[in-house]
Amino acid sequence: MAPLLLIIGFEPLDIVPAVLFCELLTGLAAGLLHQHDGNIDLIRDRRARRTLILLAALSTVGAVAAVLFGIQFGGRWFAFGSVAVVLVLGLLTLAKARQPACFRGWGILAIALMAAFSKGMSGGGYGPLVTSGQIVCGLPARQAVAITSIAEALTCLVVLMGYVAVKGAPDWTLALPLAGGALLAVPWATLGVHHLPQTWLRAGVGVLTLALGLWSLFTLVG
């Protein structure tokens, strides 16, 4: 969304809060519909609930650690590291698309830390990294998609609050139409997640994650 808005001619300072606001609303709406459609049960499933809390909590502190790292070592080296992680997770997700999942709690912790750090360094890459990482660590694909939607929404809330405190309210003439259009797609997306076979979801996440990693790598070296 952000690159398209830049191409159209919007200013970056107008795009960032508008996209954050849009992701906040769509993430929360998606979380509610994932719960309603049965893709996840945050009330009864303790493991899913703990995973969500862990991802959301670490994401709120990722920006601080990322800024300190960037000042000390420079962000470009970490960007290459993040791309490498995304590529590996994409390949692992594809490799495990047809294999039975075995949950690894320590892996969720590692993915949460990496995703939080990546969000703070670049503002992007959170969704593919967290979704594919959860699948590799053994969570069902439907749960991984739902948890990522809610965790990223909470992250956007924290970042948007900080942005508003410093820069003021977003440009509503841009933010509201973006959010309205994106919200129209949410019900169809959650229904698609509910009805698609797990192997298809895993393969789809793997392909998209790998594509994002290759695109990011091309951008960095280009």
| Biggest sheet architecture | none
CA radius of gyration is: 17 Å
Helix count from the secondary structure assignment: 9
Counting helices, strands and paired strands, the structural category is mainly alpha
How would you sum up this structure, described in words?
With 222 residues, this protein is mainly α. The chain has one domain. The protein is 84% helix and 0% strand. The chain contains nine helices and no strands. Helix 3 crosses helix 7 and helix 6 crosses helix 9. It is globular.
Summarize the structure.
With 222 residues, the protein is mainly alpha-helical.
Descriptive key words:
globular; 222 residues
Spell out the blueprint of helices and strands.
Elements: H1 2-8, H2 12-37, H3 46-73, H4 75-95, H5 105-122, H6 126-136, H7 141-167, H8 172-195, H9 198-221
